[in-house]
Amino acid sequence: MSHASRGARRTLPFANAGARALALAGASLLAMPALAQDANLARNLAATCANCHGTNGNARGDMKPLAGMPADKMLAMLADFRSGNQPATIMHQISKGYTEEQVKLVAAYFAAQKPAAK
Ligand code: HEC
Does residue 73 or residue 8 have the better pLDDT? Predict the structure, then answer.
């Protein structure tokens, strides 16, 4: 009995130290998106659109392709989704999930993609 409780007391500070180390690692990961210079950031953000709009914006089937869309046009469309001027099934929600800076990165990324031949 005393054995077990001593053991438990001894592992607790150790577990706390581990949690603190994890929290620190998590904090530095969270700080990473602030590095707009990161060349991968735009691609990573654009990847969140890929499930629906296809890899690099080359959509299949009926889905609207984003590849090669001028950045201005995309920014205007996303703004219309956000404001509700353009009724949507899902994009009105998705367009609210990104900061202005992120949306600009994504728009520039897709504008630079080559539309695939259909
Ligand atoms: C869950 C699926 C889904 C995801 C994820 C998604 N979209 Fe869409 N997107 C749609 C659908 C569906 C439409 C058609 C409008 C509607 O009904 O919402 C659309 C339409 C659009 C349009 C208008 C295209 C046109 O020519 O009319 C743009 C621009 C767009 N999406 C950009 C994006 C961007 C940028 C992302 C990632 C940040 C993204 N979408 C992520 C489903 C998605």
Answer: 73
